[in-house]
Amino acid sequence: MAKLTIDGKEIAYEGKKMILQVALESGHEMPHYCYHQGLSIVASCRICLAEVASPNPRNNNALELIPKLMPTCQTPAADGMVVYTKSPKSIANQKAVMEYLLINHPLDCPVCDQAGECHLQDYSFNYGRAESRFQEEKIKQPKKDIGLNVVLYSDRCIMCTRCVRFTKEVTGTQELGVYGRGNREQIDVFPGKPLNNELSGNVVDICPVGALLDKDFLFTQRVWFLTKSPSIDGITSSGDNISLEHNEGKIYRLKPRFNKDVNKWWTSDEIRYGWKFIHSTNRLRAPKRMQLGSQIDTEWPRAYEAAREGLTKAAAEKGPGALALLVSPMLACEEAYLLAKLARAIDPAAVLGVGPIPVGGQDKAFPGGYTIRAEKCPNSRGVRRALELVAGDPAKVLSFADFVASVGDKATKTAAVLLTGNYAAKDNEAATWATPELAAAVKGKFVVLLDTLASDVAAKADLLLPSVTWAEKAGTFENATGLLQSFAAAIPATEFARPEGQIALDLLAACGLGPRGVYDAAKVRQEIGGVFVTDVRHPAAEHDATPDMEFVEL
Q1: Which is the most buried residue in 233, 271, 512, 544, by most CB within 10 A?
Q2: Pairing of strands 323-327, 351-354
Q3: In whole angstroms, what is the distance from residue 516 CA to residue 182 CA?
Q4: What pLDDT does residue 4 have?
Q5: Which of 421, 518, 511 is nearest to 466 (CA)?
């Protein structure tokens, strides 16, 4: 294994890598703007220049200092190399680069959304001068609306060209380019071609300063108030690793987390902005039961008692096969397992089915390796896997169409149906997952519905139990490639809503079929066993950021 030394610290590395890449992977801080691991290397910002001493094979591998400063982002690492980023020459370059970048940069940090996570702020503090020597008038650049989701503050841009390279190399759409020369150089879109590709929001993430900003997040929250919780895409089957950023129980934005095997550094705009239904005004907030032809609010104990009476009565009167369970592909694997366990405990011959799987178009792959999935649910494969484990036979887990046909067939004994929804909706719309065929099939039967949003089927259910979205609970999703990934709750549950896993445990206890307990996804995975113990990937522990300033309580 090769080794190099950076500022007196010896670092081992494997393969062919640049000096900066070795430093960043080892946790050694080195300033950089234009470099990004997912993009080509242009070495244009020049702040990563450092003094480098390299072994000379023509001189018995003696260390010889290269006369000029070298761009560490573009200089290959070599065994025995010594790098100095804190030498007087390197420090002088860092201060000079920072001074040049700040000459025309506006002093609007107090109103900039990037404040608190801006590399220009951080590097100005760590590597810049204490005061500016620039006395002339700053050049003012325009603010530009460049797409549906992104706004460009040109006067904050440092011309790192990360965004330009992203649209060229990752999306292949090439909406952005560099225009002008010298101090009039600007980033802009091609005439008549706005930045509206399906991955456009990623340019905000990779911008190291406050030039490219998210319209949806603009002026909504200061980033230092946000708590960042690792999660998994709960909207499509991609399994993107994401972070939910929230404050006081409200999500303000969603950002991608790096995972080289799934989504790399990116996520789609569909996922980035598709979480709004979590705070929809149509969220179900309290249990309801049917009384004299209309639904009335009820308490959880009374709701559980009503569910016990209806489900056990149907099983007792109609015999095996009287109960049918439809598990939504929006639910976690652990919840599907517990619900199937509940159904089979009440009725050993209960019909098990997977809910409708929304599909929009076809999978779309981009040149940078990211794929947008056509399947618009996170866990159809995981739900089926969990149901098959309980059923013991894959053939006994029905598709949605077969489930509707079975429940609606008058020759069957189905008298009670346990349904789950939890589907996403846009712009405060009601959920539309329940088809007219399903509504006709369950008509006249005792219907228990676990769902998050108001809908036509929710308004007609004999018992309506409010559940929570993936952001409010823990579990495991299996993505389109068969990868199992766990996630944890980011925000508290909405008012009186509960996770489907907790509802299943409570109903088991209410029916006298199990002890009372608290839903714990990790314990359920241990109970299921197999791949849910050996193959589930968990989010890596995140390191807390260390503040540059000491806080003193007054």
Answers
A1: 233
A2: parallel
A3: 70
A4: 94
A5: 421
Query: Residue type at 140?
Result: K
C-alpha–C-alpha distance, residues 98 and 125, integer Å? 10
Q: Does pLDDT of 459 surpass 80?
A: yes
Instruction: Give the integer Cα–Cα distance in Å for 46 and 456.
Output: 60
User: For residue 430, what pLDDT is reported?
Assistant: 54
Alpha helices in 259-396 (DSSP H): 269-272, 300-318, 333-346, 380-391
- Structural domains in the chain plus CATH codes: 2-97 (3.10.20.740), 107-219 (3.30.70.20), 288-534 (3.40.50.740)
Average pLDDT, the chain: 92
| AA identity, residue 21 | Q
For Cα atoms 203, 207, 212, give the angle at the middle one, nearest 5 degrees: 70
| Mean pLDDT in residue range 83-100 | 95
> Average pLDDT, stretch 423-434?
70
End-to-end CA distance of the chain: 51
Residues 6 or more apart whose Cβ sits within 8 Å of residue 384: 354, 394, 397
DSSP lists the bridge partners of residue 55 as 63
Site of tokens 């239904």: 277
Query: By CB neighbour count within 10 A (0-12 exposed, 13-18 middle, 19+ buried), where does 171 fall?
Result: buried
CA–CA separation, 366 and 368 (whole Å): 5
| Dihedrals phi, psi of 316, to nearest 5 degrees | -70, -40
The answer to whether the CB of 325 falls within 8 A of the CB of 299 is no
The number of residues making up the chain comes to 554
Token pair of 84, please? Answer: 């100095």
**Phi, psi torsion values for 330, nearest 5 degrees:** -85, -10
